[in-house]
Amino acid sequence: GIACYAICLALVAYTHLLTLIAFAALPALYALFFSKDTWAKRIGSLAAAHALGFMLTAAYLLPMWLNLPFVRPDEFLAGPYNILRQLTHPDTAFCVYYLVIAALVAGLAWRKGDAGPLRQRCIYFSGTAIAFWLMTTPLSYAAWQHFLMLHVLQFPVARLNCVMLIAATWLAVYGIERLHARRAIFVAALVIF
User: Fold this and answer.
1) Closest CA to 94 of 159, 153, 161, 187
2) How far is Cα 170 from Cα 74, in angstroms, rounded to an integer?
3) Is 191 within 8 Å of 60 (Cβ atoms)?
4) What HEC string does 110-128 produce?
5) CA–CA separation, 129 and 101 (whole Å)
6) Whole-structure pTM value
């Protein structure tokens, strides 16, 4: 429920704030789209969980927030750590593997005629993998320039790779579960290696 979600947010904030910045939208969108409650209750519960999570981390986040006037985000745009220069990192090519998994599993779901919640989750995680991969390419240049908070995520390919890995893992399990036993072993071996 609300308390569990809030505690998870607080634990992530206390252990690694950059992870919270990079991934906070993923569980929030998941809760919004896959909850069985009405939209009003979903939004209210999510807002309450985030408010409680913020209160649980206030001892940590409040001093940081009060010191924001002393942070110069323009310095994140200069020098060797320029986030915009990192969007052409060669590791982006390695993340294409996650897109292949997303495409294969989406094709499998369409071929098998899956419907309902599992298909919706397949679409959600496929969209997540694609969106986060795009955020590691020069195609997302405008987003990185506009949202200065993203600049603290230095080395975006490495950080956003984690989100793509979560999505690809769910998709791989979904795909393997739908295949016959012999094919599933082959596909599982491909995914692992």
Assistant:
1) 161
2) 38
3) no
4) HHHCCCCHHHHHHHHHHHH
5) 9
6) 0.66
